[in-house]
């Protein structure tokens, strides 16, 4: 057979080579299907038509799928660098980008070749003999910033303050002289969270929080009255004026005032003499992120043994991404997610069903992440300096491996593409800011459910789903039942149930005495409340009084009792401890409390019993001719308080009604969760007559053919004006919707599955603790998350890329607790 000339072969495939345009996304740092990189043994192959990158084991799949034969092969080899090279001073709060912290990374030498599949014919680059089109294409690829890098840099710099357009020609009036201390709001007695208006020198308090704490809105109200745009937060001004908090009301953001010194001087303020008394938001975040509480959660003082092998792969911190890393480590420790994205789905299967760009496909990126975490391919020890290490020693436990030296470590895998996909529909998770692990878990589960909607039997998120039933007992003796679906059981922490009350009282006396002497209490002296988990579970199920509940039986407002229980027990039960409360400035503050959590819990007593013999349901609606309906009337006091915070009046009424007038906090939580509902602006209907006839039965049948329940389909069509597409969106946006959600009283007994929980996993109520996500820091907006997971009979700490055997897992300090049902 005549040997093909490589150059001629390349020329014959020039039509499959594209010169990238500025708008093209170019991947050249990581394989789209695995975590292979140019530093991997086989290097990286960049498709010169789609600009997607593939590792050596996966590039042939792309060739088979697309027919694209020409690739740029990039290989990086370690370069010897002097160990005493000087470090650059950082100018940006970031790692590994220009101006950021120098993480002293190993430098690499990069080589390039043109490779033609399927025979892997290779031509060197650069070479003047290559066709001009190929040379231009390769130059453009190499000079372009990689898509992975672009997203990282964009996220880091997204929060950079901009110069205010109002600062350049700011009008200043009046002859106000502002004193250097002793500030107080000009319209109330507030002495904290004070803002100086830079136009007229008025000192006014900040915004009021939803629960009435914080300021009294005087600063923002002053702007609405006068239009004076800029204000600076008193207590944050020092000689470093760039660190001061300046807020622009018309731009609704923190900004830079380049003339702040002049603007302050107008009011007689010598900024060089001011001592900062309040930390700026950025400083507080940096302080929490660089000075972690290296206590039991981190096990930092322990001589922990690193672990390597399948299931023991760390995740690189992409910049405040620990909330995601800790959550995903626990999620992929469940059988349901392991089976769906690892055991039952290969990388090739996921790639074959993925769209043209696999980087934007959640199924593909979840499969990639699962194989990266569970295969053990990337969980290998590497020496800190030269990347060499002794071979790992096989452990006796299911093929895991431990290193021969305790200071060995692994590099971990960077979940960039997964983060980009999962955050695409959520603006907060796409930033580099710290996030709430609970919010991320719920968002992640919602996205997984949507991606598996075509084949719900494959949906692994169902293993977390369970039904909740609320029973409302009216003073008439009649009852109503509400049902919903949920993925987490959120528990209040009853501090009054602490088991160490005597120690707490003694500590508070010591603390009061030291404070009166101007002394601080040392960390060794601090005593925290200890609350049993059983008390938190009991608090969830305890009767709760509902005032001003409208009874359709009495046709009047009355007081009712609400109790809650579970209609099904999931395979995996997630308990969320409500450790965060709102403090001034809408900043969540964490309760300093220990939760005593046993290894095994039994929640069998929490199963809802459903409608019992002899119970009489509240009427669904008032008799004809009555003005009132069985639906409760919105409590005007609750509505007024919500409306005073700037919420829409109709939305406030719906929030009060849908929470049975339980209180402002409950209504606020409902409102924040339903702001994007398609029917949020629909008028409140107090009559049910005639609504059934308004729904087109053919539209109902269409939705039923999609796999939705008929009751849900009718609700969605009513809320969406009969539009099938909008109704489908409504169903996905309201996963907790059920035929019972609007006070449906057609409740059957517990012997018959109800539509709300039909088909859900169910079993006994005994559970074993297997995962803990703990939080270090004062709020969800800062700090650090760590996961501890029970694997192969021992607890393991997953701290970003660090994976090691846990010596003392912090079972009493968890934020999220993951339990697995004990069968049999």
Write the layout of secondary structure elements.
Blueprint: H1 6-12, E1 44-47, E2 53-55, H2 59-66, E3 70-78, E4 108-116, E5 121-125, H3 132-143, H4 147-157, E6 162-163, E7 194-197, E8 203-205, H5 218-226, E9 230-233, E10 246-248, E11 253-256, H6 260-265, H7 281-290, H8 322-331, H9 335-343, H10 347-353, H11 362-374, E12 393-394, E13 401-402, H12 416-422, H13 437-451, E14 466-473, E15 479-486, E16 489-491, H14 501-516, E17 530-532, H15 533-541, E18 544-551, E19 556-566, E20 572-577, E21 580-583, E22 587-590, E23 594-596, E24 600-602, H16 636-643, H17 649-658, H18 664-673, H19 697-705, H20 710-719, H21 724-733, E25 766-776, E26 784-791, E27 794-799, E28 802-805, E29 814-821
Parallel strand pairs: 6-11, 16-20, 17-23
Antiparallel strand pairs: 1-2, 1-3, 3-4, 4-5, 7-8, 7-9, 9-10, 10-11, 12-13, 14-15, 14-19, 18-19, 20-29, 21-22, 24-25, 25-26, 25-29, 26-27, 27-28
Helix pairs in contact: 9-11, 11-12, 16-17, 17-18, 19-20, 20-21
What can you see in these coordinates?
With 824 residues, this protein is an alpha+beta fold. 25% of the residues lie in helices and 18% in strands. The protein has 21 helices and 29 strands. Helix 11 packs antiparallel against helix 12, helix 16 (636-643) packs across helix 17 (649-658) and helix 20 (710-719) crosses helix 21. The radius of gyration is 30 Å and the shape is globular.
- Overall body shape: globular
Percentage of residues in strands: 15-25%
Q: CA-to-CA gap between the ends?
A: 66 Å
Radius of gyration: 30 Å
- Structural class call reads alpha+beta
Helix content: 25-40%
| Strand runs, count | 29
Largest sheet: 8 strands, mixed
Task: Count the DSSP helices.
Answer: 21
**Mean pLDDT score, rounded?**
80
Uncertain stretches of 5 or more adjacent residues: 279-294, 384-405, 584-588, 622-630, 687-693, 738-754
